[in-house]
Amino acid sequence: HYTIHIGAHKTGTTYLQRTFHTLLPALEIEGIAFPAGWSQSDDQPSHQKLYAAPTAGATDALRAEFGAITADEVLISSEDFSYLQEPHLARLRTLLGDAPVTIVFYCRRWSEMLPSVWQERIKHGFSETFPQFAAAVMKDPSRLDFVNFGRILDRYATVFGKDNIRVVSYSAVTDAGIDLAVHFAETFALKMRPLL
What we know:
This protein has helices spanning 13-22, 24-29, 48-56, 59-67, 86-95, 110-123, 130-139, 150-160, 170-175, 180-188; strands spanning 2-5, 32-33, 73-77, 101-107, 165-169. It is α/β, with parallel strands linked by helices.
């Protein structure tokens, strides 16, 4: 069984990935794989390499990597998976074979997401003010995946089936004071629960 955590950005994904990476030896004992070979680094354990491979068409190499996994449960996590388009998702679905898949997506309310995305843009050299950024977003919010996350979920539903998608309100989890990793373990990876 594959549990694929696809983000979204700014919903605690780095925290979750670092937790999974820290627990790697214990996860392996429990029969859960969080493949380190797909991570960028120990400090950035997002499965960025796996995200990049389907878009590059590296099917043969990926088939061998998936074939080498012997665990019953496989946990994959990259917020950039939210960018994958249907042809790339179809390629990934083929690589997973007949294995059952659960897609996990955390969403965040607009009032929190917009300032967070704007701050990230400033870090990367953009100079717009927040009102300028918000006004540009509000001109046509339906075209932006980070606001209209239905666009992302529709792509995944087409390839993996809507019954295999789990959507969680990141905002509700954090408002309730629940640790995100504990929530993930209790909701999607029960074997992880005793490890946290």
